[in-house]
Amino acid sequence: MTTFSIASRDELWLRGALVESRLMHGVATQRGDSIDASDTRDDELVRACDLVIDAAHAAVASFRDARVRIVVRATHDGEVETTMTIAVDGVSVVTTPSDALADYELLHRVRNGSAPLCGAIVWQNGSAAVLLHEAFGHASEHDAAPVAWPSWLSIEAPLTSRRETFRDVPLMRMTHLIARQTSAPFVMPDERVEVQLVAGGAYDPMTDMVTVDVAVSSAGPFTIRRSRAEIAASLAGASGEPIRYPGVICSREGQELYVASHAPVMITDGLL
Questions:
Q1: Do 145 and 207 contact (CB within 8 A), yes or no?
Q2: Given pLDDT bands bounded at 50, 70 and 90, which one contains residue 4?
Q3: Which site among 59, 100, 123, 262 is 20 to 30 Å from 83 CA-CA?
Q4: Distance (Å, rounded) from C-alpha 128 to C-alpha 149?
Q5: φ, ψ for residue 111 (rounded to 5)?
Q6: Interval 116-126: pLDDT, tens
Q7: Which candidate, 62, 74, 82, places its Cα nearest to that of 13?
Q8: What's the pTM value of the predicted model, to 2 decimals?
């Protein structure tokens, strides 16, 4: 028998003002293939949420032109997780209170360009982590067949049993993704598109296809849809240490979970 208990606070802020607040709590007990769930309140977990949400409030109150969703989750194993989704002018990032100001400022720095949509892609701001999240991480969750990744690339994407709420069935999910390069080639291409932020992505285990929707780039928004083998073959180089990408909310079977993601500046060729 295993027991899972959780409490979470979910708030919506518009232009620095709180407009919606919800509290969720419950307990799920699994006996074999049976799960009994109830909305039993664990006061200790609720207090844990209330103690940490103030740090998020201090950051969000100054974001006068943003839509911000704050979610604090406290579970029975002592984990307390706070995520903030910040949206400005239709472009969003997912962050934590300690990085919220830097990522809010990033949203104001990046702008879509009008360069031709051709050439290689240079993945800035750790954005290649989203490409690898779909092509490597999600594929691992589905036990997909291996593909030939470059020898200079290593990807850390451990899987563990996770669930969004007490009502959900636990699934093997990524906890984080960190891509690293060792002595990778790197020559900045003359003809290139520079990606700054990604809107989202998906992996289809039936077709082994990966979709990535780019939100901000030197060529404006666009979508990539390629097989995992094509993505692996397109990786032409990388430079530097892994960069924290401002957040990935990972959705699978309707369960949305935060996955911290890091990748160096990377180059792909042949995806456009």
A1: no
A2: confident
A3: 123
A4: 14
A5: -145, 145
A6: 999 999 999 99
A7: 62
A8: 0.91
53-76 per-residue burial string, b: 16 or more CB within 10 A, e: under 16? bebbeebbeebeebbbbbbbbbbe
Residue 247 has pLDDT above 80, yes or no: no
3-state SS of the chain is: CEEEEEEEEEEEEECCEEEEEEEEEEEEEEECCEEEEECCCCHHHHHHHHHHHHHHHHHHCCCCCCEEEEEEEEECCCCEEEEEEEEECCEEEEECCCCHHHHHHHHHHCCCCCCCCCCEEEECCCCHHHHHHHHHHHHHHCCCCCCCCCCCEEEECCEEEECCCCCCCCEEEECEEEEEECCCCCCCCCCEEEEEEEEEEEEECCCCEEEEEEEEECCCCEEEEEEHHHHHHHEEEEEEEEEEECCCEEEECCEEEECEEEEEEEEECCCC
Chain length of the chain: 272
CA atoms lying within 13 Å on the CB side of residue 240: 15
Closest CA to 30 of 142, 168, 159, 160: 168
Closest among 102, 73, 94 to 259, alpha carbons compared:
94
Token pair, residue 220, equals: 């404006």
Q: Cβ(90)–Cβ(76) under 8 Å?
A: no
- HSE (CB half, 13 Å, CA atoms) of 121? 28
The residues pairing with 177 across neighbouring beta strands, listed in sequence order, are 261
63 with 229: CB under 8 angstroms? no
Tokens found for residue 255: 């369960």
